[in-house]
């Protein structure tokens, strides 16, 4: 069954271009031209992925993403003509899976759509994540390194599992803090760094040069893709 993709942009020509490439690639396309319509179509159509422009009438893209993330892990690729780095950080903080600045090559966008959907599908299909010498069993809450069981606290495992479920996706410190502590107070973000440091001591051959839990400077952390 073809994946259904919701394209949200207030510029009809951009929607038309993206629609053409997506249909040519075999996807079913749903369209919305403002934030309010986007949320309505998301609720009724339940797409597999959302391509979301940030600058929208009615409700902006940030608020659309925030509303989607309250109820769904559906992947989101954000589009924007703005170059402010804070837009990218906020988009990632809200749970975007990828970020594409305008103007963009439509073929590159399709490649990113395929990559995000592939990662999502692989995550849902398996409860065991293996990369390099590391094996994470999400059901039994067991982590093995070179076949040897590694002990984790419940919070450490929760953090590792969340990162590993979304390889390549960048999580900000405040996102991870909210996951662990249920709060987003910036003053406590050092707590996340401490947990990451402890994780690395347990699973990295060289914690100063990690292969699994990677730092994205100025943003947060991500779990390595198999190719990284």
Keywords:
alpha/beta; 5-stranded parallel sheet; Rossmann fold; Arc Repressor Mutant, subunit A; 8 helices; 43% helix; 4-stranded antiparallel sheet; 228 residues
Short description:
The protein has 228 residues and is an alpha/beta fold.
What report would you give on this structure?
It is a single chain. With 228 residues, the chain is α/β, with parallel strands linked by helices. The chain folds into two domains: 4-123, Response regulator (Rossmann fold), CATH 3.40.50; 127-223, Arc Repressor Mutant, subunit A (Orthogonal Bundle). Helices cover 43% and strands 21% of the residues. A five-stranded parallel sheet has the order 2-1-3-4-5, sandwiched between helices. A four-stranded antiparallel sheet has the order 6-7-8-9, with helices on one face. Strands 10-12-11 form a three-stranded antiparallel sheet. Strand 6 and strand 7 (134-137) form a beta hairpin. It is elongated and about 55 Å long. The two termini are 31 Å apart. The model is unreliable at 183-187 (pLDDT under 50).
